[in-house]
Protein backbone atom coordinates (compact mmCIF):
# COMPACT_ATOMS: atom_id res chain seq x y z
CA UNK A 1 0.00 0.00 0.00
CA UNK A 2 0.98 3.60 -0.45
CA UNK A 3 2.60 5.29 2.56
CA UNK A 4 -0.03 8.03 2.64
CA UNK A 5 -1.79 8.09 6.00
CA UNK A 6 -4.68 10.37 6.75
CA UNK A 7 -5.84 11.22 10.24
CA UNK A 8 -9.61 11.18 10.62
CA UNK A 9 -11.06 14.51 11.73
CA UNK A 10 -13.24 17.33 10.53
CA UNK A 11 -11.43 19.47 7.98
CA UNK A 12 -11.03 23.15 8.84
CA UNK A 13 -11.05 25.88 6.23
CA UNK A 14 -8.60 25.44 3.38
CA UNK A 15 -6.82 28.64 4.40
CA UNK A 16 -5.41 26.87 7.47
CA UNK A 17 -3.95 23.99 5.44
CA UNK A 18 -0.15 24.04 5.33
CA UNK A 19 2.26 21.74 3.54
CA UNK A 20 5.70 21.08 4.99
CA UNK A 21 8.34 19.24 2.97
CA UNK A 22 11.40 17.46 4.31
CA UNK A 23 14.32 15.85 2.51
CA UNK A 24 17.54 14.24 3.61
CA UNK A 25 21.27 14.87 3.49
CA UNK A 26 22.66 17.47 1.09
CA UNK A 27 26.23 18.43 0.33
CA UNK A 28 28.45 19.59 -2.47
CA UNK A 29 31.45 17.31 -2.80
CA UNK A 30 32.64 14.82 -5.40
CA UNK A 31 30.16 14.70 -8.28
CA UNK A 32 27.88 17.35 -6.72
CA UNK A 33 30.62 19.99 -6.27
CA UNK A 34 30.35 21.01 -9.92
CA UNK A 35 26.65 21.76 -9.47
CA UNK A 36 27.60 24.96 -7.64
CA UNK A 37 28.88 26.45 -10.90
CA UNK A 38 25.22 27.45 -11.27
CA UNK A 39 23.61 27.45 -7.81
CA UNK A 40 20.23 28.39 -9.31
CA UNK A 41 19.97 24.97 -10.99
CA UNK A 42 22.03 22.85 -8.57
CA UNK A 43 19.11 20.72 -7.39
CA UNK A 44 17.63 20.23 -10.85
CA UNK A 45 14.03 19.16 -11.36
CA UNK A 46 13.38 18.17 -7.73
CA UNK A 47 13.26 21.89 -6.92
CA UNK A 48 9.65 22.01 -8.06
CA UNK A 49 8.62 19.53 -5.33
CA UNK A 50 10.61 21.45 -2.71
CA UNK A 51 9.34 24.86 -3.77
CA UNK A 52 5.70 23.73 -3.83
CA UNK A 53 5.53 23.36 -0.04
CA UNK A 54 4.84 26.24 2.34
CA UNK A 55 7.90 25.26 4.38
CA UNK A 56 10.82 23.08 3.25
CA UNK A 57 13.76 21.74 5.25
CA UNK A 58 16.87 19.64 4.54
CA UNK A 59 20.01 18.66 6.40
CA UNK A 60 23.10 20.51 5.14
CA UNK A 61 25.75 17.84 5.62
CA UNK A 62 28.86 19.99 5.24
CA UNK A 63 30.97 22.76 6.63
CA UNK A 64 30.65 25.89 4.51
CA UNK A 65 34.17 27.24 4.75
CA UNK A 66 37.52 27.59 3.01
CA UNK A 67 39.42 27.59 6.30
CA UNK A 68 39.96 25.41 9.35
CA UNK A 69 41.86 22.24 10.16
CA UNK A 70 40.42 18.78 9.45
CA UNK A 71 39.14 17.03 12.55
CA UNK A 72 40.36 13.49 13.45
CA UNK A 73 37.75 11.54 11.48
CA UNK A 74 37.48 9.63 8.20
CA UNK A 75 35.29 11.83 6.01
CA UNK A 76 35.54 15.60 5.67
CA UNK A 77 33.09 17.72 3.68
CA UNK A 78 33.24 21.39 2.93
CA UNK A 79 31.63 23.65 0.38
CA UNK A 80 31.82 27.29 -0.69
CA UNK A 81 29.20 29.83 0.34
CA UNK A 82 27.33 29.13 -2.92
CA UNK A 83 25.89 26.07 -1.16
CA UNK A 84 23.41 28.38 0.56
CA UNK A 85 22.49 30.04 -2.74
CA UNK A 86 21.75 26.57 -4.12
CA UNK A 87 19.46 25.46 -1.29
CA UNK A 88 17.65 28.79 -1.37
CA UNK A 89 17.13 28.55 -5.13
CA UNK A 90 15.71 25.03 -4.68
CA UNK A 91 12.98 26.32 -2.37
CA UNK A 92 14.51 25.33 0.97
CA UNK A 93 13.46 27.63 3.83
CA UNK A 94 15.59 26.35 6.72
CA UNK A 95 18.48 23.90 7.09
CA UNK A 96 19.70 21.81 9.99
CA UNK A 97 23.44 21.87 10.58
CA UNK A 98 23.22 19.55 13.60
CA UNK A 99 25.15 16.68 12.05
CA UNK A 100 28.51 14.92 12.01
CA UNK A 101 30.06 17.16 9.34
CA UNK A 102 29.37 20.78 10.30
CA UNK A 103 32.53 20.71 12.43
CA UNK A 104 34.70 18.74 9.99
CA UNK A 105 37.02 21.77 9.88
CA UNK A 106 36.80 22.60 13.54
CA UNK A 107 35.31 25.59 15.30
CA UNK A 108 36.73 27.90 12.64
CA UNK A 109 34.82 25.99 9.98
CA UNK A 110 31.63 25.99 12.05
CA UNK A 111 31.85 29.74 12.61
CA UNK A 112 32.29 30.26 8.87
CA UNK A 113 29.34 27.92 8.19
CA UNK A 114 27.05 29.98 10.40
CA UNK A 115 28.37 33.33 9.15
CA UNK A 116 27.85 32.26 5.52
CA UNK A 117 24.28 31.24 6.31
CA UNK A 118 23.52 34.62 7.85
CA UNK A 119 25.14 36.43 4.93
CA UNK A 120 23.00 34.38 2.51
CA UNK A 121 19.83 34.95 4.53
CA UNK A 122 19.40 31.20 5.08
CA UNK A 123 17.92 30.26 8.47
CA UNK A 124 19.61 27.35 10.22
CA UNK A 125 19.10 25.35 13.40
CA UNK A 126 21.14 22.91 15.46
CA UNK A 127 24.36 24.82 16.05
CA UNK A 128 25.42 28.06 17.64
CA UNK A 129 28.10 30.16 19.32
CA UNK A 130 27.10 28.55 22.63
CA UNK A 131 24.50 26.10 23.92
CA UNK A 132 21.81 28.74 24.25
CA UNK A 133 22.19 29.56 20.56
CA UNK A 134 22.58 25.94 19.40
CA UNK A 135 19.33 24.83 21.06
CA UNK A 136 17.45 27.95 19.99
CA UNK A 137 14.64 27.31 17.50
CA UNK A 138 13.79 29.04 14.27
CA UNK A 139 10.25 30.41 14.34
CA UNK A 140 8.01 31.22 11.41
CA UNK A 141 4.31 31.86 10.88
CA UNK A 142 2.30 30.55 7.93
CA UNK A 143 -1.33 31.58 7.48
CA UNK A 144 -1.78 32.21 11.16
CA UNK A 145 -0.08 29.02 12.35
CA UNK A 146 3.15 29.50 14.27
CA UNK A 147 5.78 26.84 13.54
CA UNK A 148 8.96 26.29 15.55
CA UNK A 149 11.87 24.27 14.14
CA UNK A 150 14.77 22.71 16.08
CA UNK A 151 17.73 20.55 15.05
CA UNK A 152 19.71 17.95 17.02
CA UNK A 153 22.39 15.35 16.35
CA UNK A 154 22.61 11.88 17.89
CA UNK A 155 25.75 10.72 16.06
CA UNK A 156 28.26 9.40 18.60
CA UNK A 157 31.57 10.22 16.90
CA UNK A 158 33.31 13.22 18.52
CA UNK A 159 30.05 14.27 20.15
CA UNK A 160 31.68 15.28 23.44
CA UNK A 161 34.15 17.51 21.60
CA UNK A 162 31.52 18.92 19.23
CA UNK A 163 28.65 19.58 21.60
CA UNK A 164 27.76 23.20 22.31
CA UNK A 165 28.31 24.25 25.91
CA UNK A 166 27.72 27.41 27.90
CA UNK A 167 31.20 28.58 26.90
CA UNK A 168 31.86 26.89 23.54
CA UNK A 169 30.33 26.89 20.08
CA UNK A 170 29.04 23.59 18.77
CA UNK A 171 26.13 21.33 17.92
CA UNK A 172 22.86 20.70 19.75
CA UNK A 173 23.08 17.08 20.87
CA UNK A 174 20.35 14.61 21.82
CA UNK A 175 22.66 13.17 24.45
CA UNK A 176 22.35 16.43 26.35
CA UNK A 177 18.82 15.18 26.95
CA UNK A 178 17.65 17.64 29.63
CA UNK A 179 18.63 20.55 27.39
CA UNK A 180 17.03 19.02 24.30
CA UNK A 181 13.79 18.27 26.13
CA UNK A 182 13.73 21.74 27.69
CA UNK A 183 14.22 23.31 24.25
CA UNK A 184 11.24 21.41 22.81
CA UNK A 185 9.04 22.16 25.80
CA UNK A 186 9.90 25.85 25.51
CA UNK A 187 9.19 25.72 21.77
CA UNK A 188 5.81 24.12 22.45
CA UNK A 189 4.89 27.09 24.64
CA UNK A 190 5.73 29.43 21.76
CA UNK A 191 3.93 27.68 18.92
CA UNK A 192 1.23 25.17 18.06
CA UNK A 193 3.51 23.22 15.69
CA UNK A 194 6.95 22.00 16.75
CA UNK A 195 9.27 20.36 14.19
CA UNK A 196 12.32 18.43 15.40
CA UNK A 197 14.92 17.40 12.80
CA UNK A 198 17.44 14.85 14.10
CA UNK A 199 20.65 13.38 12.69
CA UNK A 200 20.39 9.83 14.02
CA UNK A 201 20.32 6.15 13.24
CA UNK A 202 22.99 3.65 12.21
CA UNK A 203 24.62 3.87 8.79
CA UNK A 204 23.32 1.13 6.53
CA UNK A 205 20.65 -0.06 8.99
CA UNK A 206 17.04 0.20 7.81
CA UNK A 207 15.63 -0.08 11.35
CA UNK A 208 16.05 2.70 13.93
CA UNK A 209 18.26 1.85 16.92
CA UNK A 210 16.87 1.89 20.45
CA UNK A 211 18.56 5.22 21.14
CA UNK A 212 16.67 6.91 18.30
CA UNK A 213 13.37 5.35 19.32
CA UNK A 214 13.88 6.46 22.91
CA UNK A 215 14.66 10.02 21.80
CA UNK A 216 11.58 10.11 19.55
CA UNK A 217 9.47 9.14 22.57
CA UNK A 218 11.07 11.93 24.63
CA UNK A 219 10.33 14.42 21.86
CA UNK A 220 6.70 13.29 21.56
CA UNK A 221 6.22 13.62 25.31
CA UNK A 222 7.85 17.08 25.25
CA UNK A 223 5.32 18.27 22.67
CA UNK A 224 6.85 17.75 19.23
CA UNK A 225 4.37 17.66 16.34
CA UNK A 226 6.74 16.20 13.74
CA UNK A 227 10.06 14.40 14.29
CA UNK A 228 12.13 13.64 11.19
CA UNK A 229 15.68 12.58 10.62
CA UNK A 230 18.56 11.41 8.46
CA UNK A 231 22.06 9.91 8.65
CA UNK A 232 21.72 6.19 7.84
CA UNK A 233 22.21 6.70 4.05
CA UNK A 234 18.94 4.93 3.28
CA UNK A 235 15.23 5.30 3.85
CA UNK A 236 13.78 4.26 7.19
CA UNK A 237 10.14 3.89 8.16
CA UNK A 238 7.67 6.19 9.86
CA UNK A 239 4.75 6.06 12.25
CA UNK A 240 2.90 7.75 15.08
CA UNK A 241 3.64 8.20 18.77
CA UNK A 242 0.25 9.43 19.93
CA UNK A 243 -0.35 12.52 17.79
CA UNK A 244 3.36 12.99 16.98
CA UNK A 245 4.41 11.89 13.48
CA UNK A 246 7.89 10.35 13.42
CA UNK A 247 9.96 9.69 10.28
CA UNK A 248 13.17 7.85 11.17
CA UNK A 249 15.25 8.33 8.04
CA UNK A 250 15.00 10.25 4.78
CA UNK A 251 18.25 8.94 3.30
CA UNK A 252 20.74 10.72 1.10
CA UNK A 253 19.31 13.46 -1.08
CA UNK A 254 21.83 15.50 -3.08
CA UNK A 255 24.76 13.18 -2.68
CA UNK A 256 28.45 13.04 -3.56
CA UNK A 257 29.02 9.40 -4.48
CA UNK A 258 27.23 6.36 -5.82
CA UNK A 259 28.08 3.71 -3.22
CA UNK A 260 26.42 4.96 -0.02
CA UNK A 261 23.98 2.07 0.59
CA UNK A 262 21.03 3.29 -1.49
CA UNK A 263 20.08 5.71 -4.24
CA UNK A 264 16.43 5.57 -3.19
CA UNK A 265 15.22 8.75 -1.54
CA UNK A 266 12.21 11.03 -1.53
CA UNK A 267 10.51 14.18 -0.37
CA UNK A 268 8.35 13.73 2.71
CA UNK A 269 5.26 15.92 2.39
CA UNK A 270 3.34 16.55 5.60
CA UNK A 271 -0.02 18.32 5.50
CA UNK A 272 -1.11 20.32 8.52
CA UNK A 273 -4.70 21.37 9.14
CA UNK A 274 -3.96 24.15 11.55
CA UNK A 275 -1.70 22.53 14.13
CA UNK A 276 -2.71 18.93 13.40
CA UNK A 277 -0.97 16.56 10.99
CA UNK A 278 -3.72 15.36 8.65
CA UNK A 279 -1.69 13.59 5.96
CA UNK A 280 1.82 12.31 5.31
CA UNK A 281 3.21 11.15 2.00
CA UNK A 282 6.61 10.19 0.64
CA UNK A 283 7.16 11.40 -2.92
CA UNK A 284 9.58 8.71 -4.19
CA UNK A 285 12.80 9.85 -5.83
CA UNK A 286 16.08 8.35 -6.98
CA UNK A 287 19.55 9.88 -6.93
CA UNK A 288 21.08 10.26 -10.38
CA UNK A 289 24.23 8.19 -10.71
CA UNK A 290 25.62 10.79 -13.09
CA UNK A 291 24.95 14.07 -11.28
CA UNK A 292 24.08 13.10 -7.68
CA UNK A 293 20.84 15.05 -8.00
CA UNK A 294 17.61 13.54 -6.69
CA UNK A 295 14.89 13.13 -9.30
CA UNK A 296 11.24 12.28 -8.68
CA UNK A 297 10.63 8.65 -9.59
CA UNK A 298 7.87 7.41 -11.86
CA UNK A 299 6.43 4.12 -13.00
CA UNK A 300 8.02 0.95 -11.66
CA UNK A 301 10.66 2.80 -9.60
CA UNK A 302 8.05 4.86 -7.79
CA UNK A 303 5.88 1.81 -7.15
CA UNK A 304 8.85 -0.16 -5.83
CA UNK A 305 10.00 2.62 -3.48
CA UNK A 306 6.45 3.12 -2.17
CA UNK A 307 6.08 -0.60 -1.56
CA UNK A 308 9.45 -0.92 0.17
CA UNK A 309 8.85 2.24 2.20
CA UNK A 310 5.54 0.90 3.49
CA UNK A 311 7.32 -2.30 4.49
CA UNK A 312 9.88 -0.36 6.54
CA UNK A 313 7.23 0.45 9.11
CA UNK A 314 7.38 -3.05 10.56
CA UNK A 315 10.52 -2.39 12.63
CA UNK A 316 9.99 1.27 13.59
CA UNK A 317 7.74 0.66 16.59
CA UNK A 318 5.20 3.53 16.35
CA UNK A 319 1.56 3.03 15.39
CA UNK A 320 0.34 3.34 11.80
CA UNK A 321 -2.17 6.03 12.67
CA UNK A 322 -2.42 8.86 15.21
CA UNK A 323 -4.15 8.42 18.50
CA UNK A 324 -3.98 9.03 22.23
E-strand count: 19
Distance between the termini: 24 Å
With helices defined by DSSP (H or I, 4 residues minimum), what is the helix count? Answer: 8
Indicate the overall shape. globular
Order of helices and strands: EEHEEEHEHEEHEEHEHEHEEEEEEEH
Biggest sheet statistics: 9 strands, mixed
- What is the residue-averaged pLDDT? 93
**Percentage of residues assigned to helices:** 10-25%
| Strand composition percent | 25-35%
- Outline the low-pLDDT stretches: 1-13
From the alpha-carbon coordinates, what is the Rg to the nearest angstrom? 18 Å
Helix/strand/pairing category:
alpha/beta
Compact summary:
The protein has 324 residues and is α/β, with parallel strands linked by helices. It contains 8 helices and 19 strands.
Topology:
Blueprint lengths: L4 E2 L10 E10 L20 H5 L3 E6 L2 E2 L13 E2 L2 H8 L4 E3 L9 H15 L3 E2 L1 E2 L2 H4 L3 E5 L2 E9 L5 H4 L7 E2 L5 H14 L2 E7 L10 H13 L3 E5 L7 E4 L2 E4 L4 E3 L9 E10 L2 E12 L6 E3 L2 H13 L13
Parallel strand pairs: 2-3, 2-16, 3-6, 4-5, 6-7, 10-12, 12-13, 13-15
Antiparallel strand pairs: 1-18, 2-17, 8-11, 9-10, 14-15, 17-18, 18-19
Helix pairs in contact: 6-7
